[in-house]
Amino acid sequence: MMVDKMLAQFQATGVQTCFHDRHISPQILADLNGTNWHLADYVARGGYVALRKVLGKDGGEGLAPDKVTATVKESALRGRGGAGFPTGLKWSFMPRQYAGQKYLVCNSDEGEPGTCKDRDILQFNPHIVIEGMIIAAYAMGISVGYNYIHGEIFKSYDRFEEALEEARAAGLLGNNILGGDFHFQLHAAHGFGAYICGEETALLESLEGKKGQPRYKPPFPASFGLYGKPTTINNTETFAAVPWILRNGGQAYVECGKPNNGGTKIYSVSGDVELPGNYEVPMGTPFAKLLEIAGGVRKGRQLKAVIPGGSSSPVLPADIMMDCTMDYDSIAKAGSMLGSGALIVMDDSRCMVKSLQRLSYFYMHESCGQCTPCREGTGWMWRIVDRIENGHGRPTDIDLLNSVSDDIQGRTICALGDAAAMPVRAMIKHFRHEFEYHVEHKTCMVPAYA
Amino acid sequence: MISEESKARFAKEVAKYPPDQKQSAVMACLAIVQQEAGFVSTESEELVAGYLGMAPMAVHEVTTFYNMYNQQPVGKYKLNVCTNLPCQLRDGGRALEHLENKLGVSMGETTPDGMFTLQQCECLGACADSPVLLVNDRTMCSFMTNDKLDQLVDGLRTAGDKE
Question: Residue A52 and residue B57: Cα distance in Å, rounded?
């Protein structure tokens, strides 16, 4: 007890990362303060209005399941976990006439370095995820769901369990939701330290109580998912976007963002900025604006580079990044990926070799070991970058790194291999001179790195 | 041995899954075992296997695959410091080094009095809070300056001595 009390003083309060006034037109993180996560608070913010509307419990006629999916399609909501796949389209892949059990899964296994948005959603606004999942389950005719939560954020898991209890007690989950004929059981599960379980089929394996090793696709989860049954998996933030869309309409959501990139997005900004945190802003917001609300580059230094979508996305140099807007299409056009929307900002005191050394170690450590190119290749890559960083690089090493990347990318069951290879290629493409300098001079050309 | 309290928690986890899919609860059950015993022993794996109707080897595969299960006894307090790139850019490495000096151990080691185990870890999913560390798997500590690290270690030592 005494220990818990002592530890409490070191726990994040959300003030720095979430409860600030620097969001722009927020939908998910609006009006949160850390204490108002309960059901009654969520209802006071307009929570569960969308569910009542969909189920016809607000005096209206209700919405047929295919109309719900059509609304989500119209909204141009794209998957917030990293792939950016259109959510409504994904929902339409679920076999409607399937007679057996189907499952809905929320992927809250947020482990992509740079990303810390789902943690804040689950901790400070858990009911928005629950409502989104109930609506999704209704749209796809699913009666059982699980939210798989990153093991490292155990407080968020505990919080989500509490919120589930509140929803059950209020008749929002379970049998005969809101007195109607729709049933949906929702449970929380947790991981325990495996980056790979953010990959959807690895997550399913883990949820089945096994090692989290990805499955071959096809078959896709929509036909062979949890326990071999049709399953839809969406990210936490994706589900959290759904209630607003059903309340206000698909077209209104598109208008919050830009065509093909509907709505707002929560960006986790970390690294060399004055105010690291989560920022919910409309899709299509200029990167320069996002950098500004995150307090600008730390200590007034110059921006050097940004990894725009979590550690797996290719790094972009400052000049390219400053011309980008924050949406799937703009970042893709610039040669990277919006991914999970996690921006790792690096200033001009940073050494790219040292940065890549740490990332390569991560991918080596987290490779699940199933596919030879990834299991062996990530080790090769780390050892090469490590020796370059430590002054033992050979003139042929840079081309060797590219060659090893080639031998991994596209040759593995899941995308972890690609995720390990892409940062290497991009770092060399944009900052080759730093690697060459390291090899030639056995030391760093950016001595200020600390 | 698994306590009655832990068994009640096991039952709550098993109830989340279809009756023929009890194995799904293995992650949670092992985490409960670890919370109670400090680590997952071979004996605990066998007990969990028996409870869930799994082969002991299938349980062992889970223990060894996921980073957070302790396969050996650890100190009373396990400190996991994130040093991944976003944290590296904001003093995560410095925090680890400070703890190494403060505790007089290298990462991966346990203090001779059995009080602390210090580990480097991968992304905790709290990148904006760096430096961050996790205490005994369940409590995340954020914005850990050197002063706060000292307070944390001293506070845990005092509390740990009394308990």
Answer: 47
